[in-house]
Amino acid sequence: MPGTRSRSRYVADRGLTTRMVTTMFLIGLLYVVFVGVLLALLRSSWPFILVIAGALFIAQFWFSDRIAAYSMGAREVTPEEAPELHGTVDRICALADMPKPRVAIADSDVPNAFATGRNEKAALVCATTGLLRRLEPEELEGVLAHEMSHVAHRDVVVMTIASFLGVLAGVMMRVWLYSGLGRSSRDSNAAIAMLVIPLVSAAVYVISFLLTRLLSRYRELSADRAAALLTGRPSALASALTKVSGQMATIPTRDLRKAEPFNAFWFAPAFSSHSLSRLLSTHPTLEQRLDQLGRMSMELGRGTS
Questions:
Q1: Least buried of 86, 163, 202, 264, by fewest C-beta within 10 Å?
Q2: What is its EC number (predicted)?
Q3: Active site residue: 120, 139, 141, 147, which one?
Q4: Which contacts of 200-207 are long-range, i.e. CB under 8 A and separated by 24 or more positions?
């Protein structure tokens, strides 16, 4: 189980470690129960279940970074193509003493950024063209430091694995409904399975969804803290947050809808969460994030005076 302690200079976060371990334990327990129920109800189809579960897990773990990057339109760029972006990433890597990730740009007016990758060697950090146009250099540094802390803390891979069970539950329910498994059988097990599998799949999806949301909100606050401490400029990150969140209202709804499914990866959610329950949000509120950064600015100011 990966923790937040790494070789980088990003500050360790025991609270994040505890939440990641707890989430992974509960998700693992849920996974065992889910597969156990499927095997008990569909005994004749157990090879099919194991193959589907194994293939989805491998795909989710090994290719999640490529899938996410492709889905969000990220295009890897060279230092010659994006010298300022590469220069900012180089500075953060020097500050954090961590390997340089691949650098990408997404052609989107939605001002945002994300990082993905199962480890530091496979990491990718991406900024949108909308973000690059709107932020000052120190603000961009704060945003990218935030994103790269997700890689250093390994919470990117934990979120990937944690979200896998919800994906599996949804896929298995669709497979059951549309493939006709068990419909040709007239025994009582098939009748029970027809009733239980959709209910179990729905329950598993809801529980895994809520667990990943709880972890996601905390990891964003943790990344804000880590980035502010690494760069020493909480105010620059707060300025970037305010600017990005304010600009979301000017983005066409069509573009926001395209970005919304990946909110858990973005620096800031593509939709305002005012109308959504905090229980369903991928991010803490803007007020919570700014309040934390404001306190850090005061503490750092007292420390230098």
A1: 202
A2: 3.4.24.-
A3: 147
A4: 200/34, 200/37, 200/38, 200/169, 201/34, 201/169, 201/170, 201/172, 201/173, 201/176, 202/169, 202/173, 204/30, 204/33, 204/34, 204/165, 204/166, 204/169, 205/166, 205/169, 205/170, 205/173, 207/30
